[in-house]
Amino acid sequence: MTPRQRLWLFAVAAAGLIACYLWAFAGLPGFGNYPGPYGPAILKHVIAQTNATGAVSAVNFSYRGFDTVGEEFILFTAAAGMSVVLRRLRGERKSESSPAEDATKRQVPATSSAVRIVSLLLVGPTALIGWWLATHAQTNPSGGFQGGVILATAFFLVYLSGEFIAFRRLSPIAVLDVAEAVGAGGFAAVGVTAVALSLPYLFNYLPLGTIPGAVSSSGTIVLISFLVGIEVAAAFILIIGELLEQTLLRRAGSS
Amino acid sequence: MQVFPFLVVAWIVAVGLYGLITSRDLIHQVVCLVVVQSSTYVLLLAVGYVTGGVAPYFFDISPHAKAVDPVVQALALTDVVVEAAVTALLLSFAVQAHKRFGTLDPHELAEFKG
Question: Which of A7, A145, A195, A201 has its CA at 20 to 30 Å from residue B32's CA atom?
Fold first, then answer.
C-alpha cells in the first residue's frame, strides 16, 4: 500500500469516526452540567466515611482502589518490560555496528557549572516536596502518583549535574527492584489483609483518626498512597536509568 | 458553547491520528500516540465539570461547597503517570528497532521480516 492510498483510507475512516464522535457528543449533557450520581454521592459522604479531605485521593485509593491496583500493575509491567527490551540489546551491541549508528558520532559538551550547581541545589527541595506529596494524599491535591514522580526527579537531578556514577550509586538496580516490588505488592497486600480480616478487598480497616485531613487520618488511604509513591518513584528511576544507560552506551561506542 | 470542550477533544484525536498515519519516524509516531491519548484527559475533565464548582478538596473550605466530579479526576491523574511509563516502553522499542535495522522509518521497517 502506498502512502497516498493509506492516507485516502484514513480519510474515509476518519470521516466515519468524526461523524460518530459528533453524534456521541450531541447526546452528552452540556459542559458544566455533570448529572452524577456517582461523583456527587462520593462528595457527600467522603469526609464522614474516610476522614480524607482530598476526595480525588479517596476515590483513587479507597472507593476505586481496585482500579488503581490495576493501573499500578500496568506501570510495574511497563517498567519491567522496558528493562527486558533494553537488556536483550546490551548483549547484541558488540556484534552489530550499523552505518546509521556510526553516523551518530558527535561531540558531547561537558556539563556547565551553572547546570551542575543549580541541579545539586534543587535535589534536596525536590526530594522533600516529593516525600511531602506522597504522604499527604488525604489532605490536598497530592498523593503517591505525583509524589513518586517528583521523588524520581530528585534522582534525575543528580544525573543532570553530570554525576552518573553518583546516580547509579544512589539508586542501585537491586534496591530499585525491591522498592518497586514492595510498592506494588504492598498495595495488593493491604487489600488482601482486609480479606483476611473477613472484610471486602481493599476495605479501609485502619483507624480513620479524628481530624479530617490530618496526616494520621483516613486509614489505608495514607498507607496505600505512600506505597504507590515508592512504586512510582522506583519505576521512574528504573526507566530513566535504563534510558540514560543507552545514551552512555552510545557515547562510549562513538568516542 | 456547551459542546466546545468536546469539539476540542475531537480535534486533538484527529490531529494525533493524522500524525500517526503520516509519520515517517517511530519516535514522532509515539509522540502522536501521546497526543491522541491526552484527548482523554480533556474529555474526562470536561465530562466531570460542574459550572461554578471548585476542586474536590475540602481541607480549607466547607465540605458542602459545590465541587466538580472527583472520579474523572482520579482517572486522569493515574493515567498521566501510567501513560508516561508506557510511553517510555514504546520508546525503548524504537531504540531497539533502530539498533537492529538502522532506521526509524515505519515504511522501511515494514520491509524487514522477523
Answer: A145
